[in-house]
Task: structure prediction
Amino acid sequence: MAYYRDYYGYPPYVSVAEKRARARHTLEQLKKKNPSIRPVVIEGNTLVRTWWGKAWNNNLTKYADYANRVGRGRSYVRHGAVLDLQIKPGQITALVQGSQGSPYQVTMEIKPISPAVWKQIRAACAGQLASLQELLEGRFPKGLAELFTAKGSGLFPAPQEIVFHCSCPDWAYMCKHVAAVLYGIGTRLDEDPSLFFVLRKAQMNDLITQAVREKSETMLKQARKKTARVIDDADLGDVFGIEMESAPAPKEKRAPTRTAKPKAVAKAPRQAPAKKTRKKPAK
Result:
């Protein structure tokens, strides 16, 4: 069977354990030369867990050109073959361990979001996002999620917006090393969703700033309506920051109170006057 493979130019079979061991060995060598290297590490059997990571991977399978080829990279990224992946504005650089001793170099150029699409998304986000944290955690209305992931008109790039190159000798349109890097991007977005906006050259703060501005304008309109009504003393104190004197409370009419009569003091009984005795004259 080995002869059959060699005859038709197939590479020799390499087990999963061997692939992982080879990737670990190469990674250790690379770290000695470049400590800032960042491999893609998959924990468990799930490639991605967050909204942004899932949305990135789902976008890859929406297009026939990618759906039929991108699956080749799943096993590579699972086995730790993506030894380094760097995301910069509009650019991806990566090192992928293949069948050869030295890793292959993969580069990608991704176009920024078009101004027309970005303007539409900014308008849709007005008043829908309360904080930057909600955006990064994927906690936003379903309507925004559908807009962000719309095929060809959302935030995620279409195939014609991505140009890639790999140093491997594979003649295929998309080799497994490029596919592994595409899946590796989804894993990287799990770690830091803000890198998506770096990659697409979009200011994510624009979405939040617009939302905050809309919220402020709404509060101002509510305040104007309130001042148009009759404002009581309590509201005047809140608006002008002064303490209003409250009117004295009306005196309550009290029923006349009856004073208790003083109790009669018991008189001491009169003592009978003492009888006078006459002394007899002496004889």
Residues 11-215 form one domain. The first helix runs from residue 2 to 7. The radius of gyration is 44 Å. The mean pLDDT is 79.
